Here is the input.
Amino acid sequence: MIESGGKDSCYNMMQCVAEGHQIVALANLRPIDKDELDSYMYQTVGHHAIELYAGAMGLPLFREDITGTSISQGKDYHPSQEDEVEDLYRLLRRVKDAVDIDAVSVGAILSNYQRVRVEHVCARLGLTSLGYLWRRDQEELLSEMICSGVEAIIIKVAALGLNSSHLCKTLAEIQPHMIDMKKKYQLNPCGEGGEYETFTLDCPLFNKRIVIDEYEVIKHDSDPFAPVCFINFKKMHLEDKKMASSASFEERLEGLPMKRGSSLLEELGNPQNHQPSLHISTGHNVTVPTLVAGSECREMPEVCLRSCTTGFSWVSGIIASRNQGSLSESINIALNSLKDILASNNLPLSSVVMVHVNCQDLSEFSAINAVMEAFFPINPPIRVTVQVIHDRDVIFSMDCMLYQPSVDQTPPLTYEVMHVQGISHWAPANIGPYSQAIRVGDFVYCAGMVPLCPSTMKLVEGGIHVECVLSLRSVGRVLSAMSNSLTLRNIVSVVCFVTDIAHIPVAKEDICTAMESELVIGTESDNEEAFTPIVCYIVVPRLPRDVSVELHVIASVSKNQMQYKQRSSICDYLKFDSKHCWDPRSSQGIGLINVAILGEVQSLRAESVFKGIVKEMEHTLQETSSSWESVLSLRLYYCHTMIRFKDISKVFRSSIPCSNLPAISCIPVEAMELGNIMSICINLSSHPERGPNT
Here is the structure.
């Protein structure tokens, strides 16, 4: 574990043990010939006493000098031999060479700067970052540390409301003051903003406690409002505990009020004991007709890139085929075809925001991950991965959304990435080369969320209801991490993938309940302006990690300024339900058209069905003052028994009344909601008359 001597690194070490990990070594970085070093990365105050940790815990201690400085200070880390992050790399590499380790304990709570750099080093060394304190509520966390036996004292202060009189106070003694300072000055109760530093004298994992014999107070900055003072330890020793325990580390933590992954169901409110009582038809008895394609459909290229003047583009038709060599070779060819079509349009791979991967067999998921990682090494796109009913010769089909600011787009839209690779109690770490969420302008695009326990990355037990509740909580946490103002209230669209049509009513009820609970805690104006998200339910054969539900969410920070419309129409044996939401400020929108069958029909002409879809699309375009040039992508989910993939692709493309086609994707699935035979997800983007200030 990376040990600074502070309360956070110590308590995260306890959290690691509570989650079943074994602590085998301690590692520390120290300044050269200095008592304290101003570092963006490391706590160095109190480093003179770190040697005592080895004796207190009976573990080997590895140390390295801090020789670098903060060279790469941006959101992303780019290695430089003179950067202090490389000191951490050298330290952990030395530990790995000497001891069998596969993970690193990290005490970061809120600092993306530290998290990104530690995860970068871990990725280079093939290690997992364990950061169980990440994004914990700091008042709750501080109280939990105190109640769990972490005895730490304040050894540095550097904030308004703190001074030398607070040095040497224990966590319990400083806690009431920090709660007051949070209310008065918005200070972080755990000192995560650098307000104070601590040194741990004892915790349940120590065999001996550390005792201070002599110290001096150093005034580093005499600012009258926020003086910087710290303690320099002069003499310390180890002391046997009065009740020394020979119990294992795990046994010493039993009964302590620590957050644990094993308590996840209790934390969720034991949803397994409160299954929703539903009386909703699932559409089991609907007969899916055969679609007959006419011979007049013209051949069109399936790979398509559609761009607009707002900087958004969409690529569809990327297919990995099995007849192109080995599995990895075939995946490489498909991804290189994506790279080539982007390059021919002056678009880098780094401009990819969102990727939909429709696998024929999810058992090949790890091979796809391995190849994709080389194509998206830094801040990868968000990704939605499902198994669909492709022909056996197809490994996967893929379509992507991109954003590259146009030359005349000043300023470019806000672009932020949430890419958390470490294990925590917060939300699931990514299980492949993708990010949890990316914000472009006012829209936040979330990766497909699956119901994994964050601290163990294992499927939560309890069935579809429990899985939905956990997935929704994780989505909410990701949105909140992107912006404090974002909640489930800000969701504008959801594609809910399930593996059984009987799961749809439960998922539908859980999503509605989550939205309603968010509205209750929102303001009155929020309730008046908010609209129900556009939700599409799709049944697929299999989902990653064999979960039962996966949620793909898009949210907007300005949802209350969006326009929402819905309509229904009937033509012959078909019912068309369409919904769309449109942001007039950015001229971006999202839509959904569901096609349902009325009565018992054996067969339909495919051209007639798509004629009705096009008619509904034109209503949407008229209501948003858009044209077909504004349609970036059309993603068609359809019951696989109706028609062959190649035939439906030809008919769909032939039906669009414009020469510059949108990016069209046809995805064969098992079923949809309430007798629907098709669902079309629409993405709109056109150049606004007046660009938003984002």
